[in-house]
């Protein structure tokens, strides 16, 4: 083979590092490994019957919808179904504000293209979803952490942080108010209203990423920032809402959606014309048929009950670890965030855990800067109850081996 | 409703214009309209039976592959099938060089992210695919046109154009060597070798976009730039190849692929982690089943025969327009590019054509600068033979009404 030329890349891609979580994949092939690492829905909780029926109906009743290009905003049938879903979630949205995206991940990518320039600064929860940190960095945008606690974004701390800045210094704040990745925290009503007031006062938009909100297994629902924006003077038009069918139907569809003020949504559509033209119309039609048949409403209680049982099992098991491990119990979602006590480093525990054949995600992946070396994320979503018990016994042995 | 805040957008999105071709969609709803505008495959030529079988098999045999997240590079089964397809097309590629993309459009988006910075200049055929021009502009990159003729990119003109420039002045050249959109031209062997030599001499990469190459209905195949790169000193590692199932299986899958030197492919995978995580695994598995069953090889001759018949019908009809219209007959693909004679403007013809209930695309959409006001693109792909006859009769009346 001839020698390759010397390639020149965009600055952010000269020596990029991939996803730290995806790096853990190599351990998954270790025989007998139990994984508390990835946030993958368990195959046992997929609604295979409902999805098979939706798939069969889509191709039988609308083969051209499935096989042809669709409008960039999405198939009308799916947009109407998603509008109705948002209404059931307490938010009245106009069709013109709603577009389909290739997973909610694409929503973030489009918003970065449309709203941000290299050198801009964006507020994020600290810790937060690693792919958001990565997407911002690859676009030359600087993520700036905001403190969180067991109830999510610390709006008092945010107010202090913003006090010295001129309005407009930050264009955006990205947050996951419901069962955040990685903290599992759910932002209380008072903080939601306070956050909206800060957005109005300091002239920034809020990206409300909500893939997990429907997976509530304890406590009472809190309205979305999208629904609450009209209650706070000056906050209307400041919320862009992202959601997805990945965690409640199936990741394999890659169907998400964005609700955004029309000027933002229109520009995201123009950006999407050059990104992938449209989200797979076949997957869109299957999703639309699934929603139209009422299958999500039938299946969701089973899914939530499944997550509840798993979360309770893991929380009870973690409680038996005693003072070695501190955590806050989540009210929904897929994740438990905790800290090793007594100065134990998550990276050291990780090495022992791999030796014991159990995986988790060390906390550093979730920090833009100054990671908490004792923090770690456990997901109860994928393993079954017996594997949760076994995995926690292994984790206990990993602690003992330190 | 409260007043919306004043939004601030990235510079390229302050006042963006959408796709000129998508703007034509509004005329499609005009009753009885015959469209020679869009490059959409005709539903009558979809292999519904083969795709229904692939869909049924995918969900029955591999429900978890369909419904779960997949590796960012794509499902292994699909990558292997695409590797075999590339081999049948005369290019030996390593699996590590091949990744699945959400249509070939996403391949271009990833390459722009990874390879280019605002202010960079990229060589493109003049005229070329509008979504490429748009993607470059929205990224702050300047497209620089290279002359074309009835045989595609004029490599002599390119050599002159590059003569005064320092090597490395252009990082990339984007081209569609097989049945280009909009010109329909197929780049001859000698020009392909010359283009590769210029890439080596002037230190640029070539993006070879090849969605149409399998749709050859006349003449002999010419090897891809990807396959030819090893024959030209210094050209190895300079070709990134994009292709897609959209034009040969179904656009609704949104399944394309990229073949790139490993350092480029790896970075595109990292970019894709933040863009959509992975292409719909369900669509990927359906595509893989379709290819593995040999359905593409069975169906492609029917598809090609269908396009041949349509192209011949349209070319014969256009010949009857006589000296009003000049064109070059394509050997494949979906498009005929032509010029109105005698100073007739395509925009004036368009107005008359809409009045006669027939659509085409005025040529200006395909130029980055200084459009040829007499040029226009006709697609024979979507209408059936009778509609081609009717549409051309209407076009004749549009000419007469000028």
Q: Give the helix level of chain A as a range of percent.
A: 40-55%
**Largest sheet features of chain A:** 8 strands, mixed
CATH superfamily of the largest domain in chain A: Type I PLP-dependent aspartate aminotransferase-like (Major domain)
Rg result of chain A: 21 Å
Strand content of chain A: 5-15%
Q: What is the string of SSEs of chain A from the N terminus onward? A: HHEHHHEHEHEEHEHEHEEHHHEEHEEEH
Number of strands of chain A: 14
Spatial arrangement of strands, main beta sheet of chain A: 2-9-8-7-6-3-4-5
Q: Which oligomerization state do the chains in this entry correspond to?
A: homodimer
Question: What's the average pLDDT of chain A?
Answer: 95
Query: How many angstroms separate the termini of chain A?
Result: 49 Å
Greatest contact between two chains: A-B, 85 and 85 residues
Explain what you see.
- Two copies of one chain form a homodimer.
- Chain A is α/β, with parallel strands linked by helices.
- Chain A folds into two domains: 142 residues, Aspartate Aminotransferase, domain 1; 235 residues, Aspartate Aminotransferase, domain 2.
- Helix content of chain A is 42%, strand content 15%.
- The first copy, chain A, contains 15 helices and 14 strands.
- In chain A, the strands form three sheets. In chain A, strands 2-9-8-7-6-3-4-5 form an eight-stranded mixed beta sheet, with helices on both faces.
- In chain A, helix 7 links the parallel strand 3 and strand 4.
- In chain A, helix 13 runs parallel beside helix 15 and helix 14 packs across helix 15.
- The first copy, chain A, is globular, with a radius of gyration of 21 Å.
- Chain A starts with 19 loop residues before the first helix and ends with a helix.
- The model of chain A has no long low-confidence stretch (mean pLDDT 95).
């Amino acid at each position: 083979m001839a020698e390759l030329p010397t390639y020149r890349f965009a600055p952010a891609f000269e020596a990029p590092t991939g996803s730290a979580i995806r790096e853990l994949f190599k351990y998954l092939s270790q025989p007998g490994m139990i994984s508390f690492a990835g946030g993958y829905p368990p195959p046992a909780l997929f609604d295979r019957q409902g999805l098979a029926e939706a798939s069969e109906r889509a191709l039988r009743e609308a083969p051209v919808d499935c096989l042809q290009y669709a409008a960039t905003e999405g198939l009308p049938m799916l947009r109407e179904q998603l509008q109705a879903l948002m209404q059931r979630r307490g938010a009245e949205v106009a069709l013109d504000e709603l577009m389909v995206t290739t997973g909610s991940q694409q929503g973030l990518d489009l918003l970065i293209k449309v709203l941000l320039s290299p050198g801009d600064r964006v507020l994020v929860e600290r810790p937060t979803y690693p792919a958001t940190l990565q997407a911002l960095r690859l676009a030359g945008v600087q993520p700036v952490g905001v403190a969180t606690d067991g109830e999510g974004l610390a709006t008092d701390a945010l107010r202090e942080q913003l006090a010295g800045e001129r309005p407009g210094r930050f264009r955006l704040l990205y947050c996951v108010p419901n069962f955040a990745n990685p903290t599992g925290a759910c932002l209380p009503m008072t903080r939601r209203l306070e956050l909206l007031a800060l957005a109005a006062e300091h002239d920034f938009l809020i990206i409300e990423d909500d893939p997990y909100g429907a997976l509530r297994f304890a406590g009472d629902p809190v309205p979305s920032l999208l629904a609450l924006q009209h209650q706070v003077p000056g906050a209307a038009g400041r919320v862009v809402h992202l959601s997805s069918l990945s965690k409640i139907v199936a990741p394999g569809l890659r169907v998400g959606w964005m609700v955004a003020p029309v000027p933002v949504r229109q520009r995201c559509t123009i950006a999407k014309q050059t990104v992938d033209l449209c989200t797979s119309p076949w997957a869109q039609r299957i999703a639309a048929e699934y929603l139209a048949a009422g299958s999500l409403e039938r299946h969701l209680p089973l899914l939530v009950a499944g997550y509840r049982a798993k979360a309770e099992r893991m929380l009870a098991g973690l409680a038996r670890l005693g003072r070695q491990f501190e955590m806050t119990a989540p009210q929904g979602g897929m994740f438990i965030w905790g800290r090793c006590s007594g100065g134990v480093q998550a990276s050291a525990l990780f090495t022992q855990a791999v030796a014991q054949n159990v995986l988790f995600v060390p906390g550093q992946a979730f920090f833009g800067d100054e990671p908490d070396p004792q923090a770690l994320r456990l997901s109860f979503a994928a393993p079954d109850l017996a594997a949760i018990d076994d995995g926690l016994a292994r984790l206990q042995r990993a602690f003992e081996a330190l």
